[in-house]
Write a structure and sequence with these properties.
The complex is a heterodimer. Chain A has two helices and 29 strands. By secondary structure, chain A is mainly β. Chain A starts with a helix and ends in an 8-residue tail after the last strand. In chain A, strand 2 and strand 3 form a beta hairpin. Chain B folds into two domains: about 100 residues, Cytochrome Bc1 Complex, Chain D, domain 2, CATH 1.10.760.10; about 80 residues, Cytochrome Bc1 Complex, Chain D, domain 2 (Orthogonal Bundle), CATH 1.10.760.10. The N and C termini of chain B lie far apart (about 35 Å). Classes of the chains: A mainly beta, B mainly alpha. At the A-B interface, helix 1 of A face helix 4 and helix 10 of B.
Chain lengths: ~400, ~200
């Protein structure tokens, strides 16, 4: 683990703490929030589920619960890295993994078929946003942006990063701003900026967006507005259009407004996706009312379930899965907290057709509906070179590998 | 400012932390130190029975085990920044932290010797329901899982901590508590602290 980095960050953070003491009006959560919990008629004791910050022993992983279509198989690919969320791969095969509250970035390497996970960086604030390009790892931790050059040659001591925080000039509000970032087919770096509230009148110039930048932080453009909180996006392999998940607001009922799967159609860059006035497939907000709430709003390609928390999305382009999965999007749903009967905790598929999509279950079994309990929380997806699909489980700090072999074919 | 004043101000944890860091540099929790000795080091500030007698230093007796483990990990890794705590825990393994948490979670929480202001307690009682504190911290404010015990906590620490959440000075925390205490006045924070301490 990187002690140098730890010291650097500690020194920087003391400075930050003092800056906050002097200038305390910056808040992690908007004071303008308009949530009316009582009106929701939901159980007011609903709250977020705790995410363990310690390792889940391998024999306690819920592998036996996972259920997949015929021919698919799940195995534990790596484990022992609590808070497992985003995954990107370096050009030399290292999987870098981001976390939220735990503040770590892991480096997972494959040594002779066995995976070794180590803490690469620690002490960061919610480093969920990772991207890799030309040997460099980009780490987005709320508004902080660091670039670690030649990182795969320095996994034991990443050294000091290039600090791109000023160049990207992202808001330092914490809520809904654990970043998702990715390089697009155009070579630009796409960055999430969520709404810093459950429901409030956000400043459209700064929040509720997807932006794209040149890799050095210059040339910022806003390509989607009125987006409450996307925590995952990917580009359709054929159309090149950006598809993104977006979480619906809480405390407006157990059944909605549902989460969204959206597409920025060609020529529709900069479109308005409705937050905070219009949710899901055209549901006006109950707390912030305006006339014609859904006028001019780009509605979703599909709604993805109430409080389901769709995070990672990945269009499948590998050769291992059957042909019918080609260019189909997989979506990891982390699962609900603001719903009395739990929902999600699975991986679904989305078959896209123009600006519409049809959903179907894919990996289930982590939700025990009868007991209203869950065994794991899928967060992100990564397609390996051999066409297998990695699924991270934040609750258990593990990655599952999903592979396919034709049913009835000889097994080894 | 006189030293006494410094020690009584909200700066105290910082000053104390730096002092602890200096004192303990090199002689920190050695990897081989038995848990009883380690717990004794914690007790130097948090009270040997886990009930703090030092201004602005929280009591940790009877805190939920999940909460203690989680916070210790965040301290160790510098996510939650409190000088002193960060240095003290640097290098300890998860199992060491779990052992410390197990030690303190079973100890009995006791009220501090701070003077309760009964008018504030009453005012705080009226705030707790609309602010829905019990929803996470439970009706007796004993805490659960990642949410800390507030009952019998030190008044000065509760005030310090609530203000940190309100003013976005609590590094590494999720934003839920900030959302709850946004815009709450200093007087109401004092009332909440006196009420929670009285439970």
């Amino acid at each position: 683990m990187s002690r140098t980095m730890f010291r650097v960050l500690t020194a920087a953070s003391v400075a930050t703490a003092l800056a906050f003491a002097a200038n305390a009006q910056q808040v992690g959560f908007s004071p303008l929030d308009r949530t009316d919990q009582k009106k929701s008629k939901q159980d007011l004791n609903l709250k977020g589920h705790p995410t363990p910050s310690t390792m889940t022993p391998v024999d306690k992983l819920p592998l036996d619960k996972l259920s997949l279509p015929a021919g698919f198989k799940a195995e534990v690919w790596s484990h022992g890295h609590p808070g497992a969320r985003t995954m990107v791969m370096g050009s030399k095969g290292t999987i870098f993994m981001g976390t939220r509250v735990l503040g770590r970035v892991y480096a997972i390497t494959d040594r002779g078929g066995k995976r070794e996970a180590k803490v690469l960086l620690q002490g960061l604030t919610q480093p969920n946003g990772l991207a890799f390009r030309d040997g460099s790892l980009y780490v987005f931790a709320i508004h902080q942006v660091f670039r670690f050059d030649n990182i795969e040659d320095k996994l034991d001591n990443p050294g000091e990063p290039v600090d791109l925080t000023k160049a990207f000039n992202l808001p330092d509000t914490v809520h809904h701003n654990w970043k998702y970032v990715a390089f697009g087919p155009d070579g630009k770096l796409y960055v999430q900026v969520g709404a810093n509230c459950n429901v409030c009148e956000i400043n459209n110039a700064t929040h509720g967006q997807i932006r794209r930048y040149n890799a050095d932080g210059t040339g910022m453009e806003i390509i989607a507005r009125g987006v409450r909180n996307t925590v995952g996006f990917d580009w359709h392999p054929q159309t090149g259009e950006l598809w993104f998940t977006d979480h619906g607001r809480d405390w407006a009922g157990n059944d909605g407004p549902e989460d969204e799967l959206n597409v920025i159609a060609k020529g529709n860059e900069g479109a308005f996706f409705g937050f905070p006035y219009c949710h899901a497939n055209g549901v006006p907000d109950p707390d912030i009312r305006i006339p014609n709430a859904c006028a001019g709003v780009t509605l979703p390609a599909a709604t993805t379930g109430p409080h389901a928390a769709g995070l990672g999305i990945k269009f499948y382009t590998g050769s291992m899965f059957p042909k019918e999965y080609q260019n189909v999007a997989f979506i990891a749903r982390r699962g609900s907290w603001n719903r009395e009967q739990k929902f999600g905790y699975d991986v679904i598929t989305a078959r896209t057709d123009g600006a519409k999509a049809t959903l179907a279950p894919f990996m289930t079994g982590l939700l025990d509906e009868k007991a209203n309990a869950f065994h794991g929380r899928p967060t992100y997806l990564f397609q390996m070179a051999d066409g297998s699909l990695l699924v991270s489980d934040e609750q258990n700090g593990a990655i599952y590998r999903i592979s396919y072999s034709t049913p009835g074919a000889t097994k080894k | 400012m006189e030293l006494k004043q410094v020690l009584q101000s909200w700066w105290r944890p910082l000053v104390l932390g730096l002092a602890a860091a200096v004192l303990l540099e090199g002689a920190t929790f050695a990897q081989t130190m038995p848990i009883a000795e380690r717990a004794k080091l914690c007790g130097a500030c948090h009270g040997e029975d886990g009930n703090s007698r030092m201004p602005n230093i929280p009591s940790i007796a009877g805190q939920p085990e999940f909460f203690l483990v989680h916070q210790l990990i965040l301290f160790r890794e510098g996510v939650r920044k409190v000088p002193g705590m960060n240095e003290l825990l640097n290098g300890l393994k998860d199992d060491d932290l779990i052992a410390l948490a197990k030690h303190f979670t079973v100890l009995a929480p006791k009220s501090s010797e701070e003077k309760l202001d009964l008018a504030l307690v009453k005012r705080g009682e009226a705030l707790v329901e609309p602010m829905r504190c019990a929803s996470c911290h439970l009706p007796g404010l004993e805490g659960q899982e990642q949410m800390p015990r507030l009952a019998k906590q030190r008044i000065d620490y509760l005030i310090h901590s609530l203000k940190q959440f309100r003013d976005n000075r609590r590094s590494g925390a999720d934003t839920l508590m900030s959302a709850v205490v946004i815009g709450v006045s200093d007087d109401d924070i004092a009332a909440l602290a006196h009420y929670a301490a009285s439970r």
